[in-house]
Specification:
Strand order of the largest sheet: 1-3-2
Helix content: 55-70%
Order of helices and strands: HHHHHEHHEE
Largest sheet: 3 strands, antiparallel
Distance between the termini: 10 Å
Number of strands: 3
Shape: elongated
Structural class: mainly alpha
Length: 137
Amino acid sequence: MMALPNRDYDLYLHMIPERIQAEEPFVSLNNLASLLVGAKFRDFWLSYANMKDSLDAARRHCCCCCAVPGFKDKCRSYIVHVLCSTYQKLPKALLGEAMYIDGAALDNYIQTQKQAAGWEVDADVSSAPRRAPPPSP
């Protein structure tokens, strides 16, 4: 999932036997991937939080995405790629909800994108360059 929009996850998934895919954490990972690719970002973050909480409680499956450094950042990068490909002007509230950040963290992200990617900011609306490059793998 961290390589989206590349389809590596789907390709690697075909190497895992179906009987193993029917077990945790694969069921939850597949659900997360489906939500992310389907642009259901709010549901993605809710499922991610539930998965993280349940795994923390059970102390199992420590190899899942919740323990992978940079997982949330890569998912957010993909989300921004999708939003910038879809919208010419992006309301700050929509960006924050999709990325599951708000307040100072969201303001810092927007300022970083303004400097690094040439975003234009007007009040509560951000405008990304016309063709946002895909996130780097």
